[in-house]
Design goal:
The chain has 349 residues and is α+β, with helices and mostly antiparallel strands. It has helices spanning 8-25, 44-56, 81-92, 110-116, 122-172, 206-217, 220-223, 243-250, 258-264, 277-280, 301-305, 312-325, 328-343, and strands spanning 29-36, 63-68, 71-77, 100-106, 178-184, 190-196, 268-270, 297-299. It is built from 13 helices and eight strands. The strands form three sheets. The chain has a four-stranded antiparallel β-sheet with strand order 2-3-1-4, sandwiched between helices. Strands 5-6 form a two-stranded antiparallel ribbon. A two-stranded parallel ribbon has the order 7-8. The longest helix has 51 residues, at 122-172. It is elongated, with a radius of gyration of 23 Å.
Length: 349
C-alpha cells in the first residue's frame, strides 16, 4: 500500500495538474483529507487496517498522498459534492470509532487554495515542480524519438506484409485498400486514422454503433459472446467483415498502416486506442480523460492486459493507469508484451 501513496510534493504537484484539468474540462474535482488522531498514531495495526481499507474503497483514478506526517490526502477526479460525501460515508462505514477525521472540499473550495499555497516550503515546491516539468519534457522528447525510429523500423519490416495485404484486399473485394476514418487524439483533436480495409465497402455502421453503446453503458450480458467465466466483448461474427478481413484482423495486420499515423505525430507506438466520434458521445465525464491526457497509440495496457475480455470501464481504468504511470520503460515492456500478444492472439478476433 505504501508504494501507492505519493510523497507530499508529488501529491501537491498532481493536485495542481488536476486543478488545471478541471479548469479546462469543467469537470468536477474533489479532495478529501484524512487526519489521524494523535492519540491513535502509535497503533500500527490500526493504521495498516485503515490503509488497506483506503485501497479497497478508492478507484484506480483516485490519487493518494501524504499531506503531513499524520494526514493522507485524496484527489478524486470527476467527483462532485455528492460523490465525495458518498465516499466519506463508505470510508466511515457507520463506525464512529475511527482513528482519523475527514475534511472534504469540491473545487473551487478554499481547501484547494490552502493546500496549493504550500505553507512553509513554497520555494521548494516550485523547484520540484520545475524539475518535474523538465523531466517530463525530456521524457516526451525521448518518447517522440522512439516513435519516429520505431515507426520507420515497423514500416520497413512490415512492408512485404502490407504489400501482400493490399493486393489480397484489392483482388477479393471492390473499394479502397486503406480505410480512412476520423478519430479523436490527445486533447480531443480529430485526425485521419488509417487501417487496411477489412469490411465490404460502404457498409452501414449501425451494428457497431449499437455494440459500442451497450459496451460503454455496461450492458455486458447483451454483447458477451463468451461465457461467465471467460467473457468475450467482441463481435465474433460481423457480417460486414470480408474473408480476407477476418485473417488480417486475427493477425493484427490491419493495424500496420497506423505506423504512418505514428510517423506523422498523430499517434504514438504506445497509448490508449483512439475512439470514434460516436463512441465519445456515449462517454461518461470520467471516460473523457482517456482522450485528454496522452497521445493515442497502436498498442497499450488494454491490448496486452485486457484485450476483448475486459469491460469498457476497466479498459478506461487501464488507460488512465498508463497516463498516470507513464515512462519509457513501461512503453518498452508494453511493446514486448504486444509482440507476444500478436504471436498468440487469444483475444483478437
Amino acid at each position: 500500500m505504501e508504494a501507492n501513496i505519493l510523497s507530499k510534493d508529488q501529491f501537491l504537484y498532481r493536485l495542481r495538474i488536476e486543478k488545471r484539468r478541471a479548469d479546462r474540462s469543467k469537470l468536477p474535482l474533489s479532495v478529501a483529507l484524512l487526519s489521524f488522531r494523535e492519540e491513535r498514531l502509535g497503533e500500527r495495526q490500526l493504521t495498516q487496517k485503515f490503509l488497506n481499507s483506503l485501497l479497497k474503497n478508492t478507484r484506480e483514478t483516485d490519487i493518494k498522498g501524504w499531506v503531513d506526517q499524520n494526514v493522507i490526502g485524496l484527489i478524486l477526479p470527476d467527483t462532485n459534492e455528492q460523490g465525495v460525501q458518498s465516499f466519506v460515508n463508505k470510508i466511515l462505514n457507520g463506525n464512529g470509532d475511527t482513528p482519523y477525521s475527514v475534511t472534504v472540499g469540491t473545487y473551487p473550495d478554499d481547501l484547494f487554495q490552502k493546500l496549493l499555497s504550500e505553507q512553509g516550503q513554497p520555494d521548494l515546491l516550485l523547484i520540484d515542480l520545475d524539475k518535474s516539468f523538465k523531466t517530463r519534457r525530456i521524457q516526451n522528447t525521448l518518447k517522440r524519438g522512439m516513435d519516429i525510429i520505431g515507426s520507420l523500423f515497423g514500416i520497413f519490416l512490415s512492408l512485404p506484409l502490407m504489400i501482400g495485404a493490399a493486393l489480397a484486399i484489392k483482388i477479393t473485394s471492390p473499394g479502397p485498400t486503406i480505410f480512412r476514418q476520423y478519430r479523436f487524439g490527445k486533447g480531443g483533436i480529430r485526425f485521419p486514422f488509417y487501417k487496411f480495409r477489412s469490411m465490404y465497402w460502404s457498409v452501414d455502421d449501425k451494428i457497431h454503433r449499437e455494440y459500442v453503446a451497450n459496451l460503454i453503458e455496461g450492458n455486458l450480458e447483451e454483447i458477451n459472446e463468451g461465457d461467465a467465466e471467460k467473457p468475450l466483448y467482441k463481435m465474433k461474427s460481423d457480417p460486414r467483415v470480408t474473408q480476407v478481413g477476418k485473417i488480417i484482423r486475427k493477425t493484427s495486420i490491419d493495424e500496420l498502416p497506423q505506423f504512418f499515423n505514428v510517423l506523422k505525430g498523430e499517434m504514438s507506438l504506445v497509448g490508449p486506442r483512439p475512439p470514434l466520434p460516436y463512441e465519445v458521445e456515449k462517454y461518461k465525464p470520467w471516460h473523457l480523460r482517456r482522450v485528454l491526457e496522452v497521445k493515442p497509440g497502436m498498442t497499450g495496457l488494454w491490448q496486452v492486459d485486457g484485450r476483448s475480455r475486459t469491460s469498457f470501464d476497466d479498459m478506461v481504468r487501464l488507460d488512465l493507469r498508463y497516463a498516470q504511470n507513464w515512462s519509457l520503460w513501461l512503453d518498452i515492456k508494453i511493446l514486448l508484451k504486444t509482440v507476444r500478444a500478436v504471436l498468440r492472439p487469444k483475444g483478437a478476433l
